[in-house]
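Lab manual, section 2.4: Encoding a predicted structure.

Procedure: take the sequence of the chain (123 residues), apply the prediction step described in section 2.3, and record the output as structure tokens. A sample record is shown.
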Amino acid sequence: VQLQASGGGLVQAGGSLRLSCSASGQTFSNYGMGWFRQAPGKEREFVGAVTRVGGITYYADSVKGRFTISRDNAKNTVYLQMNSLAPEDTAVYYCAATRSASIVLPENQYNYWGQGTLVTVSS
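Recorded output:
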């Protein structure tokens, strides 16, 4: 699976962005999808995930209530809607695909990774 993340940019605190991750190469609906982020000088961390057909989502506490993951299997795309952004959300955001049928958090459970898209939130 090849993954291409897009939609990053510069936004003011309190604003919103929607990231997209387009997949190609294999049957998209066979994969659970996750979003991760890596802030400057920090390790990459789990943001959220969605199961293969989108029935279940799970979020890190730091983004719960502000971020929403959805997917459109017909378009081979997963989305990360980010609202009420804060400077601490500044990071490179990555999408990843897992063969697991359930929600998984550890990075090593993901089989494919996109290249990342930078989100910068100004105060």
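Check your result against the sample. The chain has a mean pLDDT of 96.
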